[in-house]
Amino acid sequence: MELIITEKDNAARRIADILSGESAEADRQNGVNVYKWGGKRCIGLSGHVVGVDFPPEYNDWRDVEPVELIDASVEKQPTKENIVRTLRLLARDASRVTIATDYDREGELIGKEAWELVREVNEDVPIQRVRFSSITKNEVSSAFENPDELDFDLAAAGEARQIIDLIWGAALTRFLSLSARQLGNDFISVGRVQSPTLKLIVDREREIQAFDPEEYWEMFADLQKDDKAFESQYFYRDEDGNEAERVWDEETAEKAYETLESATQATVDSVSRRTRTDSPPAPFNTTQFIRAAGSLGYSAQRAMSIAEDLYTAGYITYPRTDNTVYPDDLDPEELLDTFVGNYHFGDDADGLLEQDDIEPTEGDEETTDHPPIHPTEDIPTKGELGDDEWDVYELVVRRFFATVAESAKWEHLKVVSTVGDLTLKANGKRLLKEGYHAVYPYFNTSENYVPNVEEGEDLSIIDTRIEDKQTQPPRRYGQSRLIEKMEKMGIGTKSTRHNTIQKLYDRGYLESDPPRPTRLAQAVVKAAEDYADLVVSETMTRELEEDMTAIAEGEADLEDVADSSREILATVFDELEESREEIGKQLQQSLKEDKTLGPCPECGEDLLVRQSRRGSYFVGCDGYPD
User: Fold this and answer.
1) Residue 326 annotated as catalytic
2) Catalytic site residue from 103, 318, 440, 477
3) CATH numbers and ranges of domains, the chain
């Protein structure tokens, strides 16, 4: 019997259908689906079915000092007993095993976990590895015809991540939680990736809170030609000779506006035109996909969840990729041709195929593991997908279309006119050639009307206005922008960044969207900065990610990297232990502020949100029972 192991059940079902010609039948064993046809069996795991943890003697937070976790041994333990049991039963009778988990660091580690479980019960069975970037008939069939071996170096990189995250997360989480006397479900979570990410958000909030707005004025005049009005704005040259619209002195603004308001005509001083080429976007990598999905209203977590479902169903390629260059074996014309005749995309595909030349765009990042995210030749009907799934699928399809479409062209028209010694400018733009915008309607293509005028021509002033404004603080990072910042700073990976943000929400560190840090989040970051800044340092996290890349490439050893990380954490604890009491007080105060609703109407003490022993929440007075 040949045993095929996939990462998830839906992938197992899809692969079994492909390899069996849809003749596979599902059999339930220990509550787990096993797909069988002929002499083959296919089982889907549930991601990691084996995890790492400390031995049981380290479980009691009160009896074990957090610093002891740094050098504690780490054990592998099954986390999904029914799946592990079923896998072992199947593996005993297997004459060959094929691992078909996702092809990335985590997928390779999941594959290695399966490899070890198989070896425990069947030492000699041949085990092979297949890799693919889309779960389509062509790719899956080709992968099974050309099997490879498990990449133990890549798996070791994933294992290093597991071990380091466990040690850092558990030791620091216990230390801060115990210091703040915050145990149970309300423990204070710290993590190797989540803490530097939280600092990014807190730093932005500090910028917003420290922002001191400045007042300024802007002036506008509506000019008219042939009964059509257009807006012009007052500008002047600053000390550097650059155009400036904001007037920072009220008296100067009022004096200029008096001149503008009393005028009836403006005289055209200059007219300039230029044509700008608007190039199509690069193919989707994970970060840019999340950004585009965010513009449609999807959180990073939701966007990736939908993309993973579409991938597993065989409709798009693997959604976790840094690549922005299509591989040589992707034939854009052939893929476009599969959309010809489709109700939703057929006309656009026809139009693209009529171009003289189809040359895909390229981004800055080229990798060899997975292609950029693009649709496969398997096209669903709209009825086969939910509304959200269709939105995301259409986004991926149209992004692919855009990357093989022609550039757009814009005409920009600038008219400068004078009113006495004042100058006004009007900037118009007109879309001359729609190009890729015809197939990718997600970018703004609004035009701004400015008429054709001649130098020296007089234009009527039909309205004027002066606007009193204030400078605005920087915006909070949206989730997609935050992921871009994390990528640029080397925090996390394409596979983990969206999960990190969601974890910060789940831990009570973030609220609303765009993410806003709670008082507890700000206190945790400040405590780390004051007493052990390595905890929130993106440099440390980035260096550890680089070490894990070196492991994957066979240039570093798992144990050496883990030991080095332990040494760094020991240094952090040397700093933390000296200030344990101060850290605890700081965190306790912030926790109280987060839960304070206001003064008690009876005694004036704080009203706090509290949790009962049964887990329900209620409002209580801090002065109770006095």
Assistant:
1) no
2) 318
3) 2-45+80-150 (3.40.50.140), 160-207+476-597 (1.10.460.10), 215-279+408-470 (2.70.20.10), 286-403 (1.10.290.10)
